[in-house]
Amino acid sequence: MNKQASLFSNIKGDFSAGLVVFLIAVPLCLGIALASGAPLFAGMISGIIGGLVIGFLSGSQLSVSGPAAGLTAVVLTAITQMGAFDIFLLSVVIGGGIQLILGLIKAGTVANYFPSNVITGMLAAIGLIIILKQIPLAFGYDPATAGSVTFFQADGNTFFSSILAAVNHISIGATLITILSVLIILYWNRIPKLNIVPAPLVAVIVGVLLNLAFSGNGVLALGSAHLVSLPVPDSFSDFIGQFTLPRFSAISNKEVWITAITIAIVASVETLLNVEATDKLDPLKRYTSPNRELKAQGIGNMISGLIGGLPVTSVIVRSSANINAGAKTKLSSMIHGALLLVCAALIPMLLNKIPLATLAAVLLVTGYKLCKISIFKEMFKNGKYQWVPFVATVAAIVFTDLLIGIALGMAVSVLAILRGNMKSSYYFRKEKYNTGDSIRLELAQEVSFLNKASILLTLDHIPSNVTLIIDARKTAYIDFDVLQTIREFKDIKAPQKNINVVLTGFKEVYKIQNNADLSVEEQGRLTTSHTHTISTGNHRELLKQLQLN
Question: How far apart are alpha carbons 499 and 468 in whole angstroms?
């Protein structure tokens, strides 16, 4: 098939894939709205916009957009702090506008500037928060602080104390539905032939049937507070009345703008990463323009916010299901959005039979996929410069909030980079220096101002009566301050200690004169007894050895 296949070139396959994605999307749209503390209908709206609007505008043929688990913490915090859903909607509109501007100024590479360990930490923390928040609902307990996403809650409790309280208020019926739903979601796909039906949909159907079976039992029956509650319109005008407009009078509210910027950043990064992952899964290996995707997502979020929906991103779960179901064009995403619209408009009474325990089960599995143990193991395997910022990001987000967590994670990552950079200008090989020895200082490819302090300390500890060869042949860049330090050492400090400084390999742009272009033979003549090489590595080793003399 041509890589630029037309919209209707695979109608049969795309319709089938759209149906599969729709069946997966229904419980996720409702569940994410529940986890976000938003009206459940808002989750359906964002799914519809993600399919119909973004599906049409996006340059990706296979990516599917909708409400994302990665934004639940942002949404829940914002709605709680602002105190009104319509004020939050204004943030969604502004956030979408920021995304549109980012696309227009071709800032699609913005995701490349966020360290992967911080992004992974953010998603893992969100997964942990989702799990901690859904455990009480899984037991059929709805605490007064269910709308709070902070670890330390206003009533003095924490996530853990809410879970302990839930254990003391267990609903047997809700717990049974949760356990069975989790098992279905985890193991349904392993059953041959039956696995063509999406596991979340099977969990929803079983949850509804169990709730109906429990309805006559005083011990197992679920109250109406523990079922999905969507408005059931009596007419088309009633249906239109369910859509909520933003409160534009809150435009001067500082929290509105902070939330908008947060949504724009998190949604953009998550979308660009998911689109990149989707392109890698595409059998036709098509490329999606990140700038066009940002524009599509921005327009989608503006429309979603204007009519009462949650923020939207590209979602890898739906996108991968779309590909596996045989989709070839963006028509499948649009069909999934159209089916969500029909479902919300015509059969909300069926959705109202779904137990919240089933949605909690869907979210528990979703949360676990974001923070599964293998992710932590992989980060620890990658070394301390990866896992330290990762752990810092996870802990900060869970115990404070998303913005503080990301900021702290970025700060720790920068510190790790600085520490690594300070150790990367040279390396000392452990040997003792004797009078008359030749010492070689091989500068690394990049020597920035961050290396100035360590180089200065090293030069100050070079012993007297030696020849020091400073070799810059491998360098691509040397900071001005470092060059000035080398000049001062050669002209002022070295003569005082009878150190013969030989400069070689310095480029003309450095404006520092080489006093030797050393060949192998010339290097040999400079060495009176032993040559000790300092190359990329840790300056503390060198200082330790120099002090032995």
Answer: 7
List the end-to-end C-alpha distance of the chain, in Å, as a whole number: 73
Over range 139-164, report the average pLDDT: 58
The one-letter amino acid at 506: F
Nearest to 358 by CA among 178, 101, 220: 178
H or E stretch at 343: helix 331-346
pLDDT in tens, 366-406: 788 888 899 999 888 888 878 899 999 999 888 877 778 88
Which tens digit of pLDDT belongs to each residue from 438-459?
888 888 887 877 777 778 878 8
The two structure tokens encoding residue 335: 């069909």
Counting Cα atoms < 13 Å in the Cβ hemisphere of 442 gives 13
**524 token code pair:** 């040999």
In terms of average pLDDT, the best of 48-57, 60-69, 139-148 is: 48-57
- 407 to each of 110, 150, 390, 400, how far by Cα in Å? 16, 17, 12, 11
Q: Can you give the length of the chain in residues? A: 549
| Token digits of residue 16 | 């089938």
Prediction pTM value: 0.64
DSSP state, residue 52: I
Paired residues of 175 in beta bridges: none
Residue 193 DSSP SS3:
coil
Q: What is the mean pLDDT of residues 192-213?
A: 84
CB atoms within 10 A of CB 106: 11
Burial of 224 (0-12, 13-18, 19+ CB in 10 A): exposed
Q: Please name the helix (run of DSSP H) or strand (run of DSSP E) that holds residue 160, with its range, or none.
A: helix 159-167
Question: Phi-psi bin for 465: left (phi > 0), alpha (psi -120 to 50), beta?
Answer: left
Nearest to 200 by CA among 42, 369, 87, 363: 363
Q: DSSP secondary-structure letter at 310?
A: P
> How many other C-beta atoms lie within 10 A of the C-beta of residue 196?
9
Alpha carbon distance 241, 522 (integer Å): 87
CA distance 491 to 537: 26
